[in-house]
Amino acid sequence: MPNWLHWLPLMAESLPTLLWAGLIFTVPLTLLSFVLGLLLGLVTALVRLFAPAPFVAVARFYVWVIRGTPLLVQLFVIFYGLPSMNILLDAFPAALIGFTLNIGAYTSEIIRATISSVPRGQWEAAYSIGMSWSQVMRRTILPQATRVAIPPLSNTFISLVKDTSLAAAITVPELFQTAQRIVATTYEPLILYIEAALIYLVMSSVLSALQVRLERRFARYGGFLEARA
Length: 229
Description:
The protein is mostly helical. The protein is 84% helix and 0% strand.
C-alpha cells in the first residue's frame, strides 16, 4: 500500500482532535493574548508619549527587555523560572501572561508610531474648539491612528496565531502539542506535522482575507473623513 493511502485514514482520524485542541486552547489563547496585549500596548504607548520621565523610563525598559529576548525564553522564565520564587502558575495562565507581555511591547511601538504620525495641526484644531486632552484622543487622534495601525496590528495578530505553537513547550495542550502527542503514539511525524501546519495555514489565510476587507473598510472611512474635511 502506498504511503499516502496509509496517511489518509490517519489524517481523517486525527483531524477532529487537532481541530478541537485549536478551538479549546489555540483560539482562546490567541484572542485573549491579543486583546490584553493591545490594551497593554495602548497604555505603554500613551505613557511613552505623554507621561513624566520616570514612567517613560519604565515603559522603555519593559519594551527593551521584551523585544530583546526570545518569546520562548520569556515563556520558560514565567512557567519554569518563577516557581523558584514560589510563584506557581498553570500552563495556560503562564502562556497567557507571556504572550500578553510580548504582544504589549510590540503593539506599543505600532500604536506610538501611528499616534505620532497624526499631524500636530489636528491637536491644535481640536484644542481650539475647547476639547480636553481625553476628548482629543478619543474623537480625533485615535480614530485617525487606528486606520494607519490596522495593517501592522493585523500582521501581529496573524503572527500570534502561529506563535501560540510555542506554548507546547510549557505543556499547554494546544494544536501543536496535540499533534506531538498523536505522533508519540502513531510514529508518523511527517504527516501529522504537515496536517498541523495546514491547519495553521488555513487559519492564517482566513485572517489575511479578513485583514484585506478590514483595510478596505477603514480606507473608505478615511476617505469619508477627508471629504468632510
